[in-house]
Design goal:
The chain is mainly alpha-helical. It has a domain of 84 residues: 5'-nuclease (Rossmann fold). 50% of the residues lie in helices and 8% in strands. The protein contains 7 helices and 3 strands. A 3-stranded parallel sheet has the order 1-2-3, with helices on one face. The longest helix is centred in the middle third of the chain and has 14 residues. The termini are far apart.
Length: 143
């Protein structure tokens, strides 16, 4: 079926934001999302775009409801027609961010990556990574 799909390429954040507003691009963006949901089109979603979406949707669409943002983005990421690097880690990161484990999606993604790979997160940010196994901060004196 993939050969029958329209390849949209890289999906920009605005495609996922405009459907919530009444503007000239809203209907077209809704049509694109519908095509992705129905399997008529496919596209790629970059982690930088997801980070941008957590910020913009949280502040301007879902009015500071992290869980609503994570639910919306998780639905998109889970689509077979949306290609995202390491979907399982991405979905886990969205939930960590939604539950407030980390202030930023990027930190939540590092947390999820650390769990998935068994590698530590090297940071001096104890606040956002206090619960991550094998996290070790470097000291300012280099020790």
């Amino acid at each position: 079926m993939s050969a029958e799909r329209v390849q949209l390429g890289w999906l920009d954040a605005n495609l996922f934001i405009h459907p919530f507003f009444r503007d000239p691009a809203a209907e077209h963006c809704r049509d694109i999302l519908k095509a992705l949901q129905e399997g008529k089109a496919e596209g790629h979603l970059d982690q930088v775009t997801l980070h941008e979406l957590t910020y913009a949707l949280y502040r301007h669409v879902f009015r500071q409801n992290r869980q609503a943002v994570a639910d919306y983005l998780s639905t998109i990421v889970a689509l077979e027609t949306v290609h995202v690097d390491d979907k399982a880690v991405t979905l886990k990161a969205l939930q960590y961010w939604a539950k407030g484990r980390c202030d930023k999606y990027g930190d939540a993604r590092l947390w999820a990556l650390a769990e998935a790979t068994g590698l530590p997160v090297c940071t001096v940010n104890r606040k956002d990574f206090s619960g991550v196994r094998h996290t070790f901060p470097l000291r300012a004196d280099g020790a």
